[in-house]
Design goal:
The protein has 22 helices and no strands. The chain is an all-alpha fold. It folds into two domains: 373 residues, no CATH class; 90 residues, no CATH class. Helix 4 runs antiparallel to helix 17 and helix 13 packs across helix 14. About 3% of the residues have low confidence.
Length: 478
């Protein structure tokens, strides 16, 4: 029954959903029309807002787009490191049935997705492919498209994890200014109010359990399974370097040994130590090795996990990736492998920045007031969550969506008297939910697994509906 429902939903979206770039263009002209109808702006003013320094070429938002690219490529580099690849292949050999295989891939992808969305996406794809190969080698029937769908689950939980754009942006004063402007009047939100809140522990923790169970119960019968050998699979995910026997001694010493990497890691270790263990650093610098446990409690001002932002996530992934790849040449090759997945960000983000520039002409305020009045304080988080899911179909990026919808959500919260942190998470949950229908971020996974988007979307759509009910329930209760 679940598989049949998924097939119906997949056919519907194949019929109506164009390419994400086309959607971005259509949204641009829709925003133009809305601005001309509902504001006093002239066509020249609308065009200027779209193409100027508050729109497509906003320096702050272009810097934000680069951070999104860096999160993707550093996460990819970490997942493709030889040690990580070997661990994933060993994990793939554990299951002894189709349901176990699907549940394992879904849980692993989701768990890694809460650490970093790029890591969860790439590692989930590699694990799905290797699990399919391992199961086929042992003669156990597994529906390979369902395995690929399980490998995509990290994108349904990522915004509740430590690379979530909205919560991390709101935790850092500089990043708030980049998205909302220097005079926004918004104070940073500690992660104890968003990612480390009881709401997020319940919602995201529940999804980590629900997703593997739902997908496992969608397993088809053995004769209906499509096996990995019916697909053109990518390599094993590890970085391969072309031999260069004529390379001179000095470049070989600098590029193919860890010498330079160690120097950079020294600086990164010092940064990580001062950021993640500020109290321990304070004690050691004064010759004391004792740590006051009370001082390690969550504090809104002290550096540490509670103030983790996009910058800190990127530096952490860079440090871990350099450790696992060891040499500069290997790490550069891993980054190059992952850079292709940034094409959509590079092409589409400026269009969404232009949309935001036009919306600043007055549309944001009108939408905020309209949502607040329509929903009321009790229903506002749920309505915001559902609207964020819809917006994500057209703005397939957590960072880009937060830049557009964040001002609307926070203004609505202020009008309705709803806690800002709850609205941040409502937008985050809506953004991640409809990734299960939006194939934009699935492109790297599809390239690794060889599966087609139309083969996995039916399964992920059914999972999306169940996840939506779970999230809406807790937004209402808490």
């Amino acid at each position: 029954m679940l598989a049949r429902l998924g097939s119906i939903i997949a056919r519907l979206f194949r019929a109506i959903a164009p390419d994400p770039f086309v959607i971005a263009i259509l949204l641009t002209f829709l925003t133009f029309a809305l601005a001309l109808v509902y504001t006093d702006a002239t066509p020249r003013e609308v065009l200027g807002a779209w193409s100027g320094s508050e729109g497509i070429f906003s320096p702050n938002l272009l810097a934000f787009a680069l951070k999104m690219c860096l999160i993707l490529v550093t996460g990819h580099a970490l997942a493709s490191a030889p040690l990580m690849s070997r661990m994933l292949r060993r994990l793939a050999s554990w299951p002894h049935s189709q349901k176990q295989a699907i549940a394992l891939v879904a849980f692993s992808a989701a768990l890694l997705g809460t650490v970093n969305w790029g890591l969860g996406l790439i590692a989930g794809a590699i694990l799905a492919r290797e699990t399919g190969r391992a199961m086929q080698a042992r003669g156990i029937a597994v529906h390979y498209p369902l395995l690929a769908a399980a490998g995509y689950v990290g994108l349904m939980v990522w915004h509740g994890g430590f690379s979530g754009s909205a919560p991390l942006t709101m935790a850092n004063k500089v990043e708030i200014a980049e998205v909302f402007g220097a005079n926004s009047g918004l104070d940073p939100l500690a992660l104890s109010k968003t990612l480390l809140s009881p709401l997020n522990f319940i919602v995201t923790g529940g999804l980590l359990i629900l997703a593997p169970l739902v997908l496992a119960f969608m397993s088809p019968k053995g004769e209906e399974c499509r096996t990995p050998d019916q697909y053109k699979l990518a390599d094993d995910g590890t970085v391969r370097l072309a031999p260069d026997p004529d390379k001179p001694f000095l470049p070989r010493l600098l590029e193919d040994t860890p010498m330079v990497t160690i120097a950079l890691l020294g600086a990164l270790f010092l940064w990580a130590f001062s950021f993640y263990a500020p109290d321990l650093t304070f004690s050691l610098t004064r010759g004391s090795f004792g740590v006051d446990l009370e001082s390690l409690a969550i504090d809104d001002e002290r550096p540490g996990i509670n103030t983790l932002g996009l910058n800190e996530v990127i530096l952490t992934l860079l440090m871990l990736g350099l450790i696992l790849h060891a040499t500069p040449r290997r790490y550069v090759a891993a980054i190059q492998d992952g850079a292709g997945a940034c094409a959509g960000i590079i092409l589409q983000f400026p269009l969404y920045f232009g949309i935001l520039g036009v919306m600043k002409l007055g549309l944001i305020e009108q939408m905020a007031l309209g949502i607040a009045h329509a929903a009321g304080p009790g229903g506002l988080p749920i309505l915001t969550f559902l609207s964020a899911g819809l917006v994500n179909l057209f703005v397939p990026s957590g960072g880009g969506q937060w830049a557009i919808q964040g001002p609307i959500a926070l203004r609505s919260a202020q009008e309705a008297g709803v806690p800002i942190e709850k609205m941040v998470m409502a937008v985050a949950y809506g953004d991640q939910l409809t990734n299960m229908l939006q194939p934009f971020w699935a492109l790297p996974l599809l390239a690794i697994t060889g599966a087609k988007a139309r083969e996995i979307v039916g399964y992920t759509a059914v999972l999306m509906v169940i996840a939506a009910l779970w999230i809406a329930l807790w937004l209402w209760i808490l």
